[in-house]
Write a structure and sequence with these properties.
Layout (H helix, E strand, L loop, with lengths): L1 H7 L3 H24 L3 E3 L2 E3 L4 H13 L4 H13 L6 H23 L9 H14 L1 H14 L8 H28 L9 H20 L8 H12 L1 H20 L10 H51 L2 H12 L1
Antiparallel strand pairs: 1-2
Helix pairs in contact: 2-3, 2-4, 3-5, 3-8, 4-5, 5-6, 5-7, 6-8, 6-12, 7-8, 8-11, 8-12, 9-10, 9-11, 10-11, 10-12, 11-12
Membrane topology: Multi-pass membrane protein
Main location: membrane
Organism: Streptomyces thinghirensis
Length: 329
């Protein structure tokens, strides 16, 4: 307790600097992870999932706009690790900073809940936070590269699509997972530990087999994803989707399994379609189940309160009712 009081007693500028550095480090680490799984499609380097966008949107939703400097610094560090500081780098940093900010502002404006306890919240995160807001980062980034002659005109739409989908998938898959981790408490509830362990074992064994199988059986991942989402909602669905997406990306980079004998364009399109359907299924199904559970609990609570109210009214007995009637007459 004394340590917490001591931290809160720090001068506000020092607290803001520490928060900025922490957000920047998290953004940079997520960027390096994303770059480690990059693909080459028709000569252009793309990332099927760009985790920093998910990290940025989650930080803004949880801690507010004071995270903006940290996001900008983290984006600058990621770009600086790839190329020398130039005008194109400044444009990419600007786009990667503005897109999460716009996502946060739009989600707040429509009443988004970080608990993702409603289907509406999942839909808003997908259509506003991911698909709409990430048009900014992809548009500004690709536009800057085109204006500075860093991009071949024939590759414009291919690179733009890959950039946009990668950023959007970062929001769809990474942001919900971070929001769940922020709400998690230790120790976790002890119920259904056996089922959770069994699910984790099956996922860790079956998903690599499916992604590396010479027969195209990627669809076998979806029953596992549905199981995880039905039983554990976001806490089960999103880690399962992320693991399957990472394994599929690794298989695509190695041109193994279902991604063997495909062209670069076919590999990118198949992988991004798989990742997109995984993320959407996990997020929306988990939101639906959470909403149904919350509705049932609300109904049960209302019924319990009604029963208690009736018991309280009947506690007076017939004599109390008769006395009250005599007073009225």
């Amino acid at each position: 307790m004394a340590a917490v009081v001591g931290i809160r007693a720090w001068p506000r500028p020092i607290v803001l600097v520490c928060e900025t550095l922490l957000v920047a480090v998290c953004y940079y680490a997520a960027g390096r992870l994303g770059l480690s799984q990059q693909l080459v499609a028709d000569g252009a380097v793309v990332t099927p999932i760009w985790p920093p966008t998910g990290v940025a949107v989650a930080c803004l939703l949880l801690f507010g706009l004071r995270c903006v400097p940290g996001i900008a610094v983290g984006a600058l560090l990621v770009v600086a690790s790839l190329t020398a500081p130039r005008l194109s780098a400044a444009g990419i940093v600007l786009g990667n900073t503005l897109a999460p900010v716009c996502a946060c502002l739009m989600l707040r404006a429509v009443g988004f809940r970080v608990s993702l306890s409603r289907l509406r919240d999942g839909l808003m995160l997908v259509f506003l936070g991911a698909m709409t807001a990430m048009l900014i980062s992809s548009g500004v980034g690709i536009g800057t590269l085109a204006l500075t002659d860093k991009l071949v005109a024939d590759d414009f739409w291919l690179v733009w699509l890959a950039w946009w989908v990668g950023d959007a998938m970062g929001v769809v898959i990474v942001t919900p997972l971070l929001l769940v981790l922020h709400r998690a408490r230790w120790p976790p509830p002890s119920g259904r530990w056996g089922e959770a362990a069994g699910l984790a074992l099956v996922v860790c064994v079956l998903v690599p087999l499916v992604t590396y199988s010479s027969v195209s059986v990627l669809f076998l991942v979806y029953p596992l994803l549905i199981w995880a989402a039905l039983r554990f909602q976001l806490a089960g669905g999103m880690p399962c989707a992320l693991f399957a997406s990472v394994m599929a990306t690794v298989a695509a980079r190695e041109e193994a399994g279902s991604f063997a004998r495909l062209t670069d364009i076919e590999t990118m399109m198949k992988l991004q379609a798989f990742n997109g359907t995984l993320g959407l299924t996990a997020l929306l199904l988990s939101s639906v189940i959470s909403e149904q559970i919350n509705t049932r609990r609300s109904v049960e609570q209302a019924c319990q309160e009604l029963v208690e109210a009736l018991q309280h009214l009947n506690a007076g007995g017939p004599g109390s009712t008769g006395s009250s009637g005599g007073g009225v007459r």
